[in-house]
Amino acid sequence: MVSEKIFESKISYILYPFSFLYEILVKLRLALYKKGFLSQNILPGFVVSVGNLSVGGTGKTPLVIKIAEWAKQKGYRVGIISRGYRGNYKDMLLVSDGKELKSTVFNSGDEPYLMARRLREVAICVSKNRAKAGRFISRRYGIDFFILDDGFQHLKLKRDLDIVLLSKRDILNKRVLPSGPLREPLSHLKRADICITTDKIEKKDILENLENLVPEKRLFFATYITKKAVFPKKGEVALDFLRGKRVMAFAGISRPERFKATLEKLGAEVIFFKRFPDHHWFSKKDLAEIFSLKKRLRAELVLTTEKDWVRLVDKNKDIGYIEVENSSEKEDRFFAIIEDADAHKKNTGQSNQLDR
């Protein structure tokens, strides 16, 4: 994983010529798909992709969970397909059959495992060949609504709706890899059907930077709501339980400072906060050091994110996690766009992706 600090450093300007070359290659790849020189796989159902333009986290997992729960309530047979980043599997792995977990977090990767813990009646499968994973769960479970996790750049699979999450950094930095955080230029937002910003940024600033790229009616503003705190030995606790507590916290996510700010907003006294690399696997040695420090600092609680918690080698340790969910403004309009895209496909037999 690329260190995000490099994008704000002087080195980023030295790397700018390489970004120019990278952008040419990205645009060439897209053109080859648009012209049909590279073919796309098609799944037997509606395919919605949830992705982003940049490296690092923008909160895709909570949104995938929310869409899956909505689709399930609407009567769809829902399946999630993912590449299972850093999962220790070979070809393809069924993470959940919708009834129970079929994999460990170490085999599936943290995000598919977290989704499988949260969701019921949703099949989840990981493979670098996501079309293969989709066909597998379609045959076995009759899936007719596929959610492609982190799929905006996965052009090999045809989708019917593209949702892109944007951070403030993406909108203002605007540089592609390796001098900037973007995996493809901001202009490629024209391919997206829905854009969601996940940072606090003035609406006028967003509209100015995304002018002619995203129609305002397809632009949404999302926040992440803290739902509850969970401890292995206590179970779920009210968030007020954290107020005034001396807390030691750690996180191995893309932007760990967000988690620290969340705890402080909940009233916890964060006496020590440790940052780990994104997607870090927490070993017995890591946990021993954490609890040694807890004792020395006389912390009352140890807390981490849910995504980090699933990567603990020992989940019986007294380490709590915070569960969050995605909350977007005008959710009725958001889901209406998805329904309209599904109706369009059923009526015409085709999607309109890659036409833009």
Strand content: 15-25%
Helix proportion of residues, in percent? 25-40%
Q: What's the alpha carbon Rg, rounded to whole Å?
A: 21 Å
What is the CATH topology of the largest domain? Rossmann fold
Show unreliable segments: none
The total domain count is: 2
- Which outline best applies? globular
Summarize the structure.
With 356 residues, the protein is of the alpha/beta class. It has helices spanning 11-14, 16-34, 60-73, 105-108, 110-118, 130-141, 168-173, 203-209, 257-265, 284-297, 306-309, 331-348; strands at residues 46-52, 78-82, 92-97, 122-127, 145-149, 161-166, 194-197, 219-231, 235-237, 246-251, 269-275, 301-305, 320-328.
